[in-house]
């Protein structure tokens, strides 16, 4: 791993890393620029904070908050609607230094579920709170309860109208043709700590109360300083069956980072005919990314702060 001397020259700091994603699916050409702009904004705003000494946890939370706020993505504002026409949000955050994790699922009317997840991790003895209980906790922590319309976008209402009575509809169909997708971030800070976070509105027309992979530790994200950290996106019902994020973290141990990412996605496809994508950083500080969907929006930072944004993995 490369190193640099920080402002206090007797402290040798590690070169931080940051990678974010804005979902793996068949992003239509008309939406590509918004996705690229969104992931690039998150990296260019947050990477300087890592260079200045922010923790990996703070960095992944900050990056995901930017993406939750951006209506381009299926997270926070702009999330898919469930079968009842409501937004229900899932998110998790994990600290690779301590293996502490916080998550929320089926949370309504809060813009930043990733921050509620962080409070679950830091302020409760639990790892995962759901639905009404998650909202009650969020309010007790001072999060604003929004009117449902404040998370709704015209794009998602229109999409919901199109699919709500479609015969033979399956919740994984929109991965081939939908307007938005999940977000996530993985960071390595200059103290050598890793963290990962994922946030989503789940899948379009999901059942009320459906929870996907995103808030499930090891499925939607995982972080362990000894292995690496990963955030996943894609068809949750397949991702959670192979614990994709933990699988890739385990693969980091004996494989090059990019090879581990590729192997994880191959495992997803072969074992459960799943599809999706992952971003990650190995314990050695190497970026990893792979997907078997047509596209995945993601962006990572170079040491000088310049950004590398992609709409699909370069071959
Ligand atoms: N994995 C998410 C879910 O199934 C959706 C996505 O990543 O697009 O809830």
Provide structural commentary.
By secondary structure, this protein is of the alpha+beta class. The protein has helices at residues 29-51, 56-69, 113-123, 131-140, 154-163, 236-239, 244-252, 257-272, and strands spanning 3-5, 12-14, 17-25, 89-95, 100-107, 128-130, 183-188, 194-200, 221-224, 228-234, 276-282, 287-291, 295-301, 307-310. β4 and β5 (100-107) form a beta hairpin. α2 runs antiparallel to α3 (113-123) and α7 (244-252) runs antiparallel to α8. The structure holds aspartic acid. Aspartic acid binds next to β10 and α6.
In short:
The chain has a domain at 16-83 and 152-297: (Glycosyl)asparaginase (Glutamine Phosphoribosylpyrophosphate, subunit 1, domain 1, 4-Layer Sandwich), CATH 3.60.20.30.
Topology of this structure?
Blueprint: E1 3-5, E2 12-14, E3 17-25, H1 29-51, H2 56-69, E4 89-95, E5 100-107, H3 113-123, E6 128-130, H4 131-140, H5 154-163, E7 183-188, E8 194-200, E9 221-224, E10 228-234, H6 236-239, H7 244-252, H8 257-272, E11 276-282, E12 287-291, E13 295-301, E14 307-310
Helix pairs in contact: 1-2, 2-3, 7-8
Bound molecules: aspartic acid.
């Amino acid at each position: 791993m490369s190193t640099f001397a920080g402002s206090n020259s007797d402290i040798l700091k590690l070169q931080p890393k940051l990678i974010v994603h804005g979902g793996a699916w068949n992003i239509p050409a008309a939406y590509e620029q918004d996705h690229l702009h969104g992931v690039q904004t998150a990296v260019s705003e947050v990477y300087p904070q890592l260079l200045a000494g922010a923790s990996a946890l703070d960095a992944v939370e900050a990056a995901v908050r930017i993406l939750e706020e951006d209506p381009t993505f299926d997270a926070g504002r702009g999330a898919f609607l469930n079968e009842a026409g409501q937004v229900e949000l899932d998110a998790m955050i994990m600290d690779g230094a301590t293996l502490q994790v916080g998550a929320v699922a089926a949370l309504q009317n809060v813009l930043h579920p990733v921050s509620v997840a962080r409070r679950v991790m830091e302020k409760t003895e639990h790892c995962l709170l759901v639905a009404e209980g998650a909202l009650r906790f969020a309010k007790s922590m001072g999060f604003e309860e929004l009117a449902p319309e404040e998370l709704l976008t015209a794009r998602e209402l229109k999409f919901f109208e199109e699919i709500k009575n479609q015969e033979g509809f399956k919740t994984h169909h929109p991965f081939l043709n939908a307007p938005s997708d999940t977000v996530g971030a993985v960071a390595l800070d200059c103290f050598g700590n890793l963290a990962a976070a994922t946030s989503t509105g789940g899948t379009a027309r999901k059942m009320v109360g459906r929870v996907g992979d995103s808030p499930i530790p090891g499925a939607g994200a995982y972080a362990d300083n000894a292995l690496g950290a990963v955030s996943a996106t894609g068809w949750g019902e397949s991702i959670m069956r192979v614990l994709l994020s933990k699988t890739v973290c385990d693969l980091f141990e004996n494989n090059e980072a990019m090879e581990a990412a590729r192997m994880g996605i191959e495992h997803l496809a072969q074992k459960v005919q799943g599809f999706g994508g992952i971003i990650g950083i190995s314990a050695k500080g190497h970026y990893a990314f792979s997907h078997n969907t047509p596209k995945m929006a993601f962006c990572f930072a170079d040491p000088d702060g310049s950004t590398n944004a992609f709409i699909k993995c370069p071959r």
